[in-house]
Amino acid sequence: MNCFRMIRGFVDHATSPGGAVGYLGALAPWDHVFKDTLYATQEILGDGVAIYRCWVIWSRDWRVIVVPCALFIVQLVSGYAVCGLYPSEKAGSTVFDPRLTRFIIIFYATAVVQSSLTTSLMAYRIWQTDRRSAAYRADSGNLMPVLRILVESAALQFVVEVILLILYSINYNAQYILLEIVTPLVGITFTAITIRITLRMSGALDTTRKASSHMGASTRATEHQVATIGSMPMRHMPITVSITKDIEDYHDPTVEDLTRDTKDDRYEPSKTKLGSSERSSSYSEPNAV
User: Which end of the chain has the smaller Cβ count within 10 Å, N or C?
Assistant: First the structure.
């Protein structure tokens, strides 16, 4: 989009009143509105991804991201409000117009606070997890390299956004330079975090494989260790299992009496049949007269 605007300014509007500078400084043209809308959208999406990562790292606890979500809504409204006011700006107006200043400052300030807050929450969670798992790790590996990668990658975007906010607050035109830097920097920051952590984890896995291939028979038992946090083998911990079995012997007098009666009357049916047979054998039917 910047390339398109440069061609329009220095080729199509080179002989127009104000020249290329007047065209590129105008706020109402559709290409300028579209360019700043893309910038606001990318900044908002970048902060949304940061909030999502923070939510995942904190085990999907919604309470942690209440404040970041509130800042996200403020940033969403202020960013698109500026883009909506651009077409109504008069010729010769600049981005330092009082109608735009309050929304732009809110947008920049919210971006700075959002970046620092989400990065701090993720860094604290990683440090807390590393501290809790230190007693269960089998080697000296830890999560501090991951924490360092996160802070270093997010620090670049944070510094640029702070300088951009300061330059715009003092009405200095050098803010345009940093404004164009922030747009690609948002994608670079999150991509750098992903790539650096992936390379770090793959290096740890290769180190583990090489070390295990040179182990002797005395250390073969460690091959069955489970790779968990950061693919670090965990220490075998003794576990004591206590099993208690309670057996209750219950005697029902009614059942015992019924069982005893059944045993006593077991051969009664046969006696009854035998008595019937005896009576039938001793009985003779009289002859018919």
Answer: C
